[in-house]
UniProtKB/TrEMBL annotation:
Keywords: Ligase. This is Biotin--acetyl-CoA-carboxylase ligase (BirA bifunctional protein). It comes from Brevibacterium sediminis. PROSITE patterns: BPL_LPL_CATALYTIC. GO terms for molecular function: ligase activity.
Amino acid sequence: MVREGADAGSPVAEFTIRGTDFQNAGHGRLGRTWTVPARRSLTWSILLTPPAGFSQWGWVPLIAGEAVHSAVTEAGVPAAIKWPNDVLTAEGRKLCGILARVEPLAGGPQIVLGMGLNTRLEPADLPREDASSIAIETGIDGSEIDHEALLVSILGTLIPCYRELIDYGDEDFRDSRTARRVRDHMVTLGSRVRVEKPDGSDIIGTATGLDAGADLIIDDQVCLSAGDVHHLRPAAAPTAAERSQD
């Protein structure tokens, strides 16, 4: 959202969008670099300017996740939200990463909400083994995937959900329609997880809910505002032969 040249000092309107067809040094969470092959992903940012006193920062990437979930499901890919900022396929492969960066400004903080949605990537393009794309999941040619239509679909959910978040003010946003949608579509909730905390320590337990600020609740006791979540596979049920030996 940086502006250059003659307009560098002028304010940028809320909901201004910037996108790119190619990215080789994007910002991910925890200082990671985000790269995007040319014309293979929907990569863009939107500026949000919440009112003074806004404190519900944790909900912003989650409502963005719900917006992406809705759009890719509409495009034919069953999906789920992973706390705090990913959208996965139903099998757990990463489709989209989201980053909400708070920019402190003299007139009040703003949020640069960015996301990269894997759309036209083929298997050879994938940045990691546990990733996928809309083209791979649907089996259609990437050239048939309309980025503009996907963006319009995402915005059609994102902006009303964001406005509901703003309208709630100091009330508990967990009671909202949007928060219910987020919880309904979040695969993390109810899962056994290992969370790598920013200080390098781990916590293992069951993700049992979200608190009022969208922090992740572990075992109904610990609230985490940040961390890398790894969904743990449940222990395999014993076979009939193993049961017979007990």
